[in-house]
Amino acid sequence: MRHRVRLKVCCISSIAEANLAIAAGADALGLVARMPSGPGPISDDAIRTIATAVPPPIATFLLTSETDPAAVVEHVLATRVNTVQLVDDTVSPDVYAAVRSRAPGVRIVQVIHVRDRSSIDLAVRIAPDVDALLLDSGNPAAAVRELGGTGRVHDWALSREIVTHSPVPVFLAGGLNSANVAQAVHIVHPFGVDLCSGVRTNGSLDPDKLREFVASLHAV
Question: Rounded distance, CA 192 to CA 4, Å?
Answer without folding.
Answer: 8
